[in-house]
């Protein structure tokens, strides 16, 4: 039962795999009044957003902007603008989000090949190299961090392999951007996309994206300007038309360019939010921010282990911002989540697919990757687990997490 006189809506601590609590500054920025999408102040904000996201993506790509919609909007825009029906594509698949990339490519009508790792592992680079050689893909697509398995795929050297094979490389960094290093240029990635609701500490609904010159050329060849906007000076590309109007990156890029060609009505409130997320990241500094997420992951892991929980997945490739732990035998995973929510106002994550009902996922991302929030979560979990029949010595998780946070 909820407490009498409880505030509405409840103030919950979101310690799952995302969404997480938005930074209060982001929420404040989003309460500003609307501007027209071609208002010079708005287009100034748009140019500013492009500049703010370049260092966050680790890129010098001029084409760095936002796709309106959740992270999946960025993914769909990238994949449908890169791949044409009938193209062979290769997906690096080590969890739910690799499966999602395959599914989107199939809907596009591409011929999908995969190179797979079991959930909890990553795909070795030489296996990807062999698959590229065998398959001859036009596009290689991979998640960076896959929150479903908590694994981060190493990406050093993948861009070179793709370039040598004439393939374009797409990377989904939704779960890692602003929390773990994303190095679009050094990786040699052609399109990288993300969302706000994980380490960037915003609400879902805007998808930052960066597009290399090579990918931009490819897209321009496929661009077809919408009928009602055409004037005498629009040249269509001679490539196969992109199979979506909303997600035609060529048209979205025309809107973000000096041409300011009309496309969708920019989600200006989301743009304020995305801009504030990026400003906060850069004010903190990328290195400091990554270190904070590393300390968080270390503390969360240490606390969970101290309670006798077994962590899921290969330690070497664990994401710093989300950790999965097996539900101990005899403990009702959903009862634990319910008590966490009802008694402590803390949300922790369930799992998908083969891990459903087997693990919980604990996030410590963005605004929530803080010492006190991790300690509060672990302290609450300890009490809840005791109530649900899992014994551990009182205080052990918090003590272990504090030591790990402090690097002891
Ligand atoms: C969370 C997550 C998404 C989420 O996509 P939405 O459309 O914002 O729900 C996509 N990709 C990865 C790797 C994620 O972890």
UniProtKB/TrEMBL annotation:
State its Enzyme Commission number(s).
Answer: 2.6.1.-
Q: Which cofactor does it need?
A: pyridoxal 5'-phosphate
Taxonomic superkingdom: Bacteria
Q: Give, as one word, the top-level EC class.
A: transferase
N6-(pyridoxal phosphate)lysine PTM sites in chain numbering: 198
Q: Name one Pfam family in it.
A: Aminotran_5
Q: What range(s) does the Aminotransferase class V domain occupy?
A: 41-228
**Biological process GO annotation list?**
glycine biosynthetic process, by transamination of glyoxylate
Sorted alphabetically, which keywords does the UniProt record give? Aminotransferase, Pyridoxal phosphate, Transferase
**UniProt-listed InterPro entries:** Aminotrans_V_dom (IPR000192), PyrdxlP-dep_Trfase (IPR015424), PyrdxlP-dep_Trfase_major (IPR015421), PyrdxlP-dep_Trfase_small (IPR015422), SP_NH2Trfase/AEP_transaminase (IPR024169)
Which GO MF term does the entry hold, naming one?
Answer: L-serine-pyruvate transaminase activity
> Which positions are annotated as binding substrate?
361
Q: Which PANTHER family match?
A: ALANINE--GLYOXYLATE AMINOTRANSFERASE, AMINOTRANSFERASE CLASS V
Which family is this sequence assigned to? Answer: Belongs to the class-V pyridoxal-phosphate-dependent aminotransferase family.
Q: What is this protein called?
A: (S)-ureidoglycine-glyoxylate aminotransferase
Q: Which organism is it from?
A: Sphingobium boeckii
């Amino acid at each position: 039962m909820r407490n009498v006189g409880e505030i509405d809506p409840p103030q919950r601590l979101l310690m799952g795999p995302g969404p997480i609590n938005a930074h209060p500054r982001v929420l404040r920025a989003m309460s500003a009044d609307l501007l027209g999408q071609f208002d010079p102040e708005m287009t100034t904000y748009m140019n500013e957003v492009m500049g703010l996201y370049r260092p966050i993506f680790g890129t010098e790509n001029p084409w760095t902007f936002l796709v309106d919609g959740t992270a999946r909007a960025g993914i769909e825009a990238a994949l449908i603008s890169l791949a044409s029906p009938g193209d062979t594509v290769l997906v690096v698949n080590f969890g739910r989000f690799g499966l999602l990339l395959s599914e989107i490519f199939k809907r596009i009508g591409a011929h999908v090949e995969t190179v797979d790792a079991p959930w909890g592992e990553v795909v070795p680079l030489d296996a990807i190299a062999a698959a590229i050689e065998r398959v001859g893909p036009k596009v290689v697509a991979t998640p960076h961090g896959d929150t479903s398995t908590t694994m981060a795929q190493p990406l050093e050297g993948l861009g070179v392999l793709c370039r040598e094979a004439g393939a374009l490389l797409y990377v989904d960094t939704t779960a890692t951007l602003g929390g773990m290093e994303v190095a679009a240029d050094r990786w040699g990635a052609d399109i990288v996309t993300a969302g706000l609701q994980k380490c960037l500490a915003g609400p879902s609904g805007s998808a930052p994206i960066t597009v290399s010159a090579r990918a931009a050329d490819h897209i321009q060849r496929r661009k077809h300007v919408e009928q009602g906007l055409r004037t005498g000076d629009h040249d269509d590309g001679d490539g196969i038309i992109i199979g979506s109007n909303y997600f035609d990156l060529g048209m979205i890029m025309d809107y973000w360019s000096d041409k300011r060609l009309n496309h969708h009505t920019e989600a200006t409130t989301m743009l304020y939010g995305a801009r504030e997320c990026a400003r906060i990241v850069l004010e903190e500094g990328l290195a400091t921010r990554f270190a904070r997420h590393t300390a968080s992951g270390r503390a969360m892991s240490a606390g969970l282990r101290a309670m006798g929980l077994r962590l899921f997945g290969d330690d070497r490739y664990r994401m710093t911002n989300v950790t999965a732990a097996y539900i101990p035998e005899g403990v009702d995973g959903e009862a634990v989540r319910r008590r966490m929510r009802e008694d402590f106002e803390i949300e922790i994550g369930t799992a998908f697919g083969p891990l459903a009902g087997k693990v919980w996922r604990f996030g410590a991302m963005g605004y929530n990757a803080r010492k006190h929030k991790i300690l509060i979560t672990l302290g609450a979990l300890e009490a809840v687990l005791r109530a649900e029949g899992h014994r551990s010595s009182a205080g052990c998780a918090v003590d272990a997490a504090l030591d790990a946070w402090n690097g002891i």
